[in-house]
Amino acid sequence: VKQSLHPVWTSQIQIGTPAKSFTVYVDTGTSYTWVISSAWIGPKNSTNNKYDALKSSTKKREKGKLDVTYTSGSRVVGPIYADTVTVGGLSASHQLFSPVNQVSGLNITRRDGLLGLALESGPRSRNATFIDTLFHQKKITKRIFSMYLSSGPGSELYIGGINPQKYRGEITYLPCRSKHHWIVEGSVRANGKESYRGGMAINSGTTLIFGPKKSVEEWWGNVFGSAPCPEEKCGGSGYFTFPCNFDASLSFKFNDREFLFAKDDLILRKLEKNKLICVGAIRAIDHDIWILGARFMKSVYTIFDADMSRVGFATPA
């Protein structure tokens, strides 16, 4: 697993026979897996790897189509196929996915698609994830995968269990509040003051941390010198600015266990016309729960346990 400047999980996967490689986002916020189709008409200088069903001897056209609009407003559309999908040396035959031929609102210049690893239910589901398929084909004995995200080398997607070399101490487990999504109960604090307690979606497919407007405004209110950022300066609504040399204690709490949030991960970027002021990575949106992306996941070792419908957090090694 690799990360970019703004850390988002990506991985190399292979699809088809003979196998073709694709670089995809690893997204725990959705169960859909898709890659760019050879029928997609992209920019002339596009370097994306594309899936061509005619070149795979193990493909099978399935009924229906994928048509997904994400919370960001981006959309992908394509037919449904089944083919052999391999991740980290583990292969799942007849894995459902979509070679999409329509993509809008997504920057896929250096990415070929998305591997969806949301919490799902069983192999008969049209949205059965790669983990589900591996389990029911007896390639893994538990529907568990773990994630370690680092700013340096060593980031890892560990399929089928937990890597003891990537964490230390005890694991704190929390039951999922949804049948389909990795949503747990937690709270967020700044300088010891709690601004939100409730549902938190663990989503590796996004870089930032998002929350309901009221609680995000309250959270930033506990950071000295913070202020709402005008849309024209920050490229969208819901952003806040703050002094880059700020001094604050930031943390997330689960089952009375507190995980500190690194100050550097709060800095999204510096303002172009004032290098002393930074744009924050915690953004207000119209939503009823918090969404914790890769910026948060760098602070923890995360275990996704579909068998027990729970998420575990530990201190990264």
TrEMBL record:
Pfam families assigned to the protein according to its UniProt record, in alphabetical order: Asp
GO terms under biological process: proteolysis
The organism's place on the tree of life at top rank: Eukaryota
Gene Ontology MF terms in the entry: aspartic-type endopeptidase activity
Entry keyword set: Hydrolase, Protease
CDD domains: pepsin_like
Domain Peptidase A1: 9-314
Keyword Electron transport among record annotations: no
Family: Belongs to the peptidase A1 family.
PANTHER family on file: BETA-SITE APP-CLEAVING ENZYME, ISOFORM A-RELATED
The protein's name in its UniProt record: Aspartic protease
